Each structure stands twice: as structure tokens, then as C-alpha cells.
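Incident log, support desk, overnight shift.

02:14 A customer reports that sequence design results differ from what the structure should imply. Their input is reproduced verbatim below. On-call engineer (initials T.W.) acknowledged and began investigating.
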């Protein structure tokens, strides 16, 4: 839910009815991909950390218009938001990766920052984004970082929503539609339960 200011910490899926053929669930470790990029694709890692993207979801029937923004790779900015030269590699700038915000279907068109416009580097700005996304998408599809699971009726997956990306493979069905039920748990509720259990409490109301 990239269009939420604070996306839920957990997403829970339960398979109700799988597809006749295909439809396997896919899960990718976004934090592992980010750290691999930091080590092997430093420039592209920097691009995905420092460029804020915008996300949107509009439902006219139910009456909501959600928007939020943030970089695809959310890392601690050790420069305290002081800008370096446009397009510069800044491997020492980024601390720990604390979250991933990525969904191509929800992301709005990218607008170049003022310094790129001012210095006539708009084309370079879009080229950098395209290159960074090519690396990012290729790694997300790599089996080193991806898990493919065939879920049977009743199977449930709990996903760390700030870390993992999820999807499905294409499918065909003739007897019944592929159906998955899901819900979300906020990061605050998740951490509250962790603290409660660490204090020795093992029962819940």
C-alpha cells in the first residue's frame, strides 16, 4: 500500500481457491536486493534512495483519494538532507535501509527536481531513473532474492510489508476463479505485540 503515508507492517494472505493452472504466489526480499545494490550497483542504489516518488489510489465508488510519497529504498540519510551535486554517487550518504516502497501500478509520473531543470539535466535525470529501475527489476526477478510458492486452499502467508514485495504469476482457470483473502496489521500493532511477548506475556484478549 504505497499510497499510505505509513504503510501497514504486515500483510496476511490466505488462499481460498487457487487457479487451475499457474497463479503461484511470488515474494521478493526487498531489503536483500537493496543491500546487494549498495554493494554492486552503488550509483543505482543512490538514485533509488534519494529520489522521492509519488503514489496514488482513487476509488470513486467508495469515495477515497489516497496519496503518499517516498523513495523506493528508504535509507537513513546521514547527510541530514543536505544535497550533493546532481547525479553524484554518494555511497557514504546512506545508512541502514529501513523500508521499501514499490508498486509500479500505483506510482505517478516522475517530475524532475528543480536542480535538474536549472542545470539542463532533465534527460540525465530520466536516464538515471530508467537505469536504476532496470537493475532493480532484474534483481527482484532473480531466484536469489525471490520465493515462488504454490498455495493450496487454506494456506496462509504472513508478509513483512516494509521489507517484502509480493505478486503472482499468470494463470488460467476454468472451474472457479482464483481467490485470495487478505488483511493488514499496522507496524505499531506488530511492535506492540513483540514488546508484550518480550515482557513474558503469552496470552492475548
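02:41 Re-run completed on a clean worker. Output:
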Amino acid at each position: 500500500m504505497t499510497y499510505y503515508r505509513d504503510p501497514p507492517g504486515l500483510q496476511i494472505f490466505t488462499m481460498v481457491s487457487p487457479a487451475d493452472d499457474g497463479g503461484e504466489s511470488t515474494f521478493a526480499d526487498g531489503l536483500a536486493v537493496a543491500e546487494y545494490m549498495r554493494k554492486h550497483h552503488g550509483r543505482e542504489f543512490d538514485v533509488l534512495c534519494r529520489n522521492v516518488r509519488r503514489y496514488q489510489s482513487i476509488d470513486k465508488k467508495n469515495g477515497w483519494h489516497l496519496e503518499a510519497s517516498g523513495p523506493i529504498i528508504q535509507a537513513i540519510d546521514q547527510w541530514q538532507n543536505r544535497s550533493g551535486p546532481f547525479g553524484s554517487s554518494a555511497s557514504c550518504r546512506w545508512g541502514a535501509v529501513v523500508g521499501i516502497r514499490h508498486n509500479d501500478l500505483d506510482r505517478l509520473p516522475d517530475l524532475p527536481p528543480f536542480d535538474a531543470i536549472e542545470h539542463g539535466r532533465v534527460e540525465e535525470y530520466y536516464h538515471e531513473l530508467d537505469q536504476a529501475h532496470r537493475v532493480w527489476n532484474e534483481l527482484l526477478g532473480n531466484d536469489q532474492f525471490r520465493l515462488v510458492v504454490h498455495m493450496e486452499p487454506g494456506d496462509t502467508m504472513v508478509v513483512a510489508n516494509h521489507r517484502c514485495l509480493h505478486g503472482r504469476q499468470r494463470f488460467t482457470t476454468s472451474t472457479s476463479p482464483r481467490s485470495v483473502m487478505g488483511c493488514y496489521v499496522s507496524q505499531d500493532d506488530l511492535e506492540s505485540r513483540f514488546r508484550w511477548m518480550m515482557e513474558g506475556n503469552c496470552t492475548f484478549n
